[in-house]
Amino acid sequence: MAMACSTSLAGVADGPSMTLYRSDSPSLYASSGGGNADDGYAVIREQRDVILQAGVHDLVLGDLPNHLDAEAMALGFPGGEAKVISQRLLLGQGPNAALTGLTGSTISVLGDNGQPLANGTLLRAGEDGLVVRGSNGTTLIRQYAAVNTEGGHFPTGSSLSLRVDASRSGHADAVLSYPTSGIGWRAAYVATLQPGNACSMQFESRASIANRSGRDWQAINLTLIAGEPNFAKASAPRPMMMRVMAAPAAAEAMPEQSAVGDYRSYTLPAPVDLPDGSISQVPLYAARTMNCERTALYENGGGWMPPQPMINDAFNTDNNTSIISTLGFKAFDSLPAGYLRVLTADRNGVPQFIGEGRINDTPKGSDATITLGTAFDLRGQRARTQFHVDRSGRTMDEAFRITLTNAGQSARTVTVREHPNRWRQWTLTSSSVKPAKQTTDTLDFKVDVPANGNAVLDYAVHYTWTADDQPQS
């Protein structure tokens, strides 16, 4: 697209809005490393005040982020004052990035000694120099020391060069919308366990918003989208600590939640500032006290089921010794995916970190469980005590002994989870502790282990199969 003679620079108007999609990209939330990140996804809608000239002419909109999907950018004039004939994205990258946004504006170019080299409209800034159109013609300047702008403003990031056909001259409102990357959000939860025998926790819900787009966003109206829309173009902006900014909204004002297609949206109650190179946090829900469940889990094997009976005596002989501590609770409302940090008070009443886990998108009323870590004072030992196969009778018997030890000063209840998966048809023939839960591929036993002591669980299962399922010799 050739540049026409009449060119004007569009300025930024107040009141932009952003729809921001969730991203777990580590590059967005990293506390070290500079520069912007090509991850995350947001759709921006902002009003620009542009100066039109009657007829066909060019104008430039600057102050755009560094990562844009050029095919999805759109500029409209609600009042019908002009229409867009063509557009070109000028990327804010490379050594001339700071000058790219000045394309179409009036500048003064100075030499090493401050002498004026040219004054006029900047047509292009490239590696071969500046192309400036003045009253005496067009000049290519290869060596210069400084550039001054007529308005004293240097746009940052990328710019959009447009050819428009206007019906009149003067100011007009234009609405620009575009997707960008380098910015994303995810939920951040903190649970502080409360003292007492029953599991209770103080639960805080926030949204962490990471901005590495190359642009500051000020007083922007923000809507957060929870869920996972599909993005077809691999080259488009993708959804996947620097200073933390306080939420400007009042403490009692919470985001308004609603459904958007198959997803959930959270519209913030007041505009927020999102400086480039920052992680801002805003509340999702008011803090609340919730019931929870602490579990010490000793698990062997998995839920995989073989295509035929497994009669090999080496199968299913796992002997894990670690007992895993977990925390579970029921979602009080729709909880977007994010990370939950869990704290508990030490003997001096100081909150201490005891584990962190990821929560997936969890609908209201659903269960959420995270792994806190390995219990220090608890251990398990698993030994097989019986194994017999009767091929002619198409049966198989297997038994295990599980020994649990507790080196702590208080009694614990350990959930033992076993997976009888030699074959899909099986029955529990005996157990020293009645199972708390039984499914097609899982046995759960809750075993009480005394302080500074141990407990033993014995159980046996019986497998059967038909002639059609007979395993190979």
UniProtKB/TrEMBL annotation:
It comes from the Bacteria. Residues 176-465 form the DUF4139 domain. This is DUF4139 domain-containing protein. It comes from Dyella monticola.
